[in-house]
Design a protein that fits this description.
Elements lengths: L17 H6 L14 E7 L5 E7 L1 H5 L3 E6 L10 E3 L4 E3 H8 L4 E2 L5 E7 L2 H8 L3 E6 L6 H4 L12 E4 L2 E6 L2 E9 L2 H7 L2 E9 L11 E6 L5 E5 L4 H12 L6 E5 L15 H11 L3 E4 L2 H7 L6 E9 L5 E13 L6 H7 L9 E9 L13 H19 L3 H8 L18 H10 L1 H4 L7 E10 L6 E7 L5 E5 L7 H13 L6 E5 L16 H28 L7 E3 L2 E4 L2 E4 H5 L10 E6 L7 E11 L6 E11 L6 H20 L30 E6 L21 H13 L5 E2 L3 H11 L1
Helix pairs in contact: 10-11, 11-19, 12-13, 15-16, 18-19
């Protein structure tokens, strides 16, 4: 299918903020300064589960240089009111409880109190003087453990929602849902080859370089001003207002530059605490987490226990699938098991499916999103079983996937039917890649493949574009720029306006300066904020046609526009020339748009990977790695490739090294970047990318979000490669050397 020729879309311009980023001029959250600034420090629980019997802050308050101390007693009384702060509705009491523990500490690292002082060192010393009397309680650290009858309860008032109905059962299981399509038992009766396996994945962190931070000023006029690094300034505004029980109009959030997030910088941790300290002191307060606090006190991705069963006919047609997904929510419900249930079999057209999902609280930090949250866990299980089916059937693993691939019209078990999608095209690109067609060679080597899906989201976005007399455009949007979206949004506006992208000046504004815009997450920004920019630019073009018509004394409907040239019967004027005359044709031209687009297109991704496993040590070396993804239309191909490579690197770390190593009493034993082992350039091969473009009919340029699907297939692809290299199936993440050696020894 041929695609339109574009002037800007599909090119690779230099990003607008690039020079400031590489020269150090860009200001991140920790860089913020203001007259009278105080520094805050948060005291955290040393216990994974403990009743807080008393807190005595008197010694800390008397310490020289200390200006204020706050605890949960300074927060408004908690309520059962449900609030939506960016990731679905949750009880306000849980949001407040995670900001400052009330009654119980539910994980080691749970914030208990905070101090503001003239210097960070004074604040830290004073925090150690706060006397907290704890009653330690038994802890539960995994979903299966927490689900056992008689397991210690984190929340005595948490009652299971069983298949949509709230029960009277107090439990650590917040929710049990089920998706059913067809009759899986009948499907298995028809199957001639069946594979069923259990899998487990460890808790891992998003691994962003910049730690969480927040500065707040409770101003004399009663407004709360916040500066922070966040994936959603409006989420921070709304969550802070909810926690403090003040109207959203009294909170203004200015997003600073952000040094990575990947979903982990959506929740609020510090902003309400800094605001309370500021209210008490009358001065701005800045809090910056240590790396230990980031790992122990913010939201990692959930660990999980999974059981997947799939059955196929001898001709390769998969006829039945079942999944059992039990995910660790951490201290509060919200384990990302819902998206896992949506994605677990989403790459395949299987008539008979049953999916059970369990959201289980455990004594670990409350989980947050991490790049396609839930989908990598689910794909690790499904793609491993599909690979084993291919082995048993004697069918090439990509061919088996092609035979069963989801297509336009395929229905997922959770309900939606696909519009135009690119699953088949991704698989064909993998199959035809030079990598897959090349010989593997050498002993102890294995090649693995896997595919994965992320549904992407739309959500509200706002944008304004004002035209300058020199023919440039100022674009104001509300989406935090993590991966170059200033430029990808500006490119879409420039394409409509018919001007070079370097003549569009994009700005990410504060919450007072632009209409509501949802989080930078869910692979939504280039899609949804891109549509807002497209519509705002169309509004500009409409007004500019009217200005040209006024100059030429003609009907605006007769003015044609082609790549920035305005024409009518022999009249012709460029965008820049017309902009120079807006003062004499009616004054400022400002285009605006507020959208909530529904035409979201999901993205499929695939991986081909070669590994070598040392049989003496269990060390796995990645020899070659190819990432394939359907971008719909790559607005800026270099950014798409960067997303694919970034997700691949994180998937490699998740597969081979990364995990929260927990003691029996719930302490994280590797809470530093020295011991929490993320891959570096020394651990990685060059990562090749293949961009597939199957246009999304729900976007004017065909865009599909690309930030997340790429992290879904790496873990199962590597697991499949390791299994082929060692001859033993890997069922646990991470596959670090001890785990690989244990698997090899178990083979005998």
């Amino acid at each position: 299918m041929s695609q339109p020729a574009y002037s800007v879309i599909g090119t690779r311009p230099i990003r607008h903020d690039g020079a400031d980023k590489v020269t150090g001029r860009a200001l991140y959250g920790a860089d913020f300064q203001m007259a009278g600034l105080l520094h805050g420090f948060v005291l955290r629980s040393p216990h994974a589960h403990a009743r807080i019997k008393s807190i005595d802050t008197s010694r800390a308050e008397a310490y020289p240089g200390v200006k204020a101390v706050v605890t949960a007693a300074d927060l408004p009384e908690s309520s059962d009111r449900m609030v939506d702060i960016g990731e679905g509705e949750t009880p306000l009491s849980y949001v407040r409880g995670n900001v400052l523990a009330r009654g119980k500490a539910l994980y080691r690292g749970h914030a208990v109190a905070a101090v503001a002082a003239a210097s960070l060192h004074v604040a830290e010393e004073a925090a150690r003087l706060i006397e907290v009397e704890y009653e330690p309680l038994p802890c539960v650290l995994t979903a299966p453990e927490a689900m056992l009858p008689g397991a210690p309860l984190l929340h005595e008032d948490l009652h299971t929602h069983e298949l949509g109905e709230k029960t009277s059962t107090a439990s650590n299981v917040s929710e049990h849902f089920r998706h059913v399509m067809g009759d899986s038992e009948a499907g298995f009766a028809e199957a001639e080859v069946i594979v069923e396996r259990e899998f487990s994945t460890s808790t891992v962190h998003q691994g962003y370089i910049e730690p969480q931070n927040a500065t707040a000023l409770w101003n004399n006029d009663g407004r709360v001003l916040v500066w922070c690094s966040t994936q959603g300034s409006f989420v921070v505004r709304d969550a802070t207002a909810c926690v403090l029980d003040i109207p959203v109009s009294r909170v203004k959030v200015t997003p600073m530059e952000i040094g990575g997030g990947f979903g982990g910088k959506i929740p609020v941790y510090l902003e309400p605490v800094a605001a309370l300290l500021s209210k008490k002191t009358g001065r701005p307060v800045k809090i910056v987490m240590t790396r230990k606090d980031v790992l122990e006190g913010t939201g990692p991705t959930p660990g999980s226990f999974l059981r997947v069963k799939m059955g196929a006919k001898k001709d390769g047609r998969i006829v039945a699938a079942q999944a059992y997904l039990a995910f660790e929510a951490g201290a509060y419900p919200g384990a990302m098991v819902g998206p896992a249930g949506m994605c677990v079999f989403a790459s395949y057209d299987i008539a008979n499916q049953t999916i059970h999902g369990y959201d289980v609280v455990v004594n670990k930090p409350s989980t947050a999103a991490y790049r396609a949250p839930g989908a990598p866990n689910a794909a690790f299980a499904t793609e491993s079983v599909v690979d084993e089916l291919a082995e048993k059937l004697g069918i090439d693993p990509i061919e088996l996937r092609l035979m069963n691939a989801a297509k336009e019209g395929t229905r997922r078990a959770d309900g939606p039917k696909y519009r135009r999608i690119g699953c088949v095209e991704v698989l064909e690109a993998m199959k035809n890649s030079e990598h897959y067609r090349s010989p593997l060679g050498g002993p102890n080597r294995g090649r693995g493949v896997a595919i994965g899906f992320w549904f992407n989201v739309g959500l509200p976005s706002s944008c304004t574009i004002s035209i300058n007399a020199d023919g440039t455009a100022n674009l104001v949007e509300g989406s935090t720029d993590i991966g170059g979206t200033r430029t990808s949004i500006a490119m879409q506006a420039a394409e409509v306006l018919g001007i070079p992208v370097d003549r569009v000046n994009p700005t990410v504004a504060d919450t007072d300066s632009v209409g509501f815009t949802a989080v930078t997450g869910g692979s939504r920004v280039t899609f949804a904020t891109g549509i807002a920019a497209y519509e705002a630019a169309q509004d500009v073009v409409r007004q500019m046609r009217e200005r040209a018509a006024k100059l030429w004394s003609v009907d605006p409907d007769t003015v044609e526009v082609d790549r920035g040239q305005y024409k009518q019967n022999g009249h012709s004027m460029s965008f820049a020339d017309l902009a120079a005359r807006i003062g004499e044709t009616g004054g400022p031209v400002v285009g605006r748009a507020a959208v909530n687009p529904k035409g979201v297109g999901g993205s499929f991704a695939g991986v081909v990977v070669d590994v070598e496993v040392d049989p003496e040590t269990g060390k796995t070396t990645i020899l070659r790695f190819t990432s394939v993804q359907d971008a719909g239309k790559a607005i800026h191909p270099a950014y798409v490739e960067g997303q694919m490579q970034g997700g691949s690197v994180q998937g490699i770390g998740w597969a081979l090294n990364e995990e929260y190593w927990m003691s029996k009493d719930g302490a994280m034993m590797n809470s530093s970047l020295l011991d929490y082992r993320m891959p570096t350039s020394l651990d990685l091969p060059m990562i090749d990318t293949i961009i597939v473009e199957v246009p999304n009919p729900g976007h004017p340029f065909g865009v599909r979000g690309v930030g997340e699907a790429n992290i879904v297939p790496p873990t199962p692809a590597i697991a499949n490669a390791v299994s082929h290299a060692t001859g033993v199936r890997m069922t646990r993440l991470p596959m670090n050397p001890p785990a690989v050696m244990a698997a090899i020894w178990s083979k005998g």
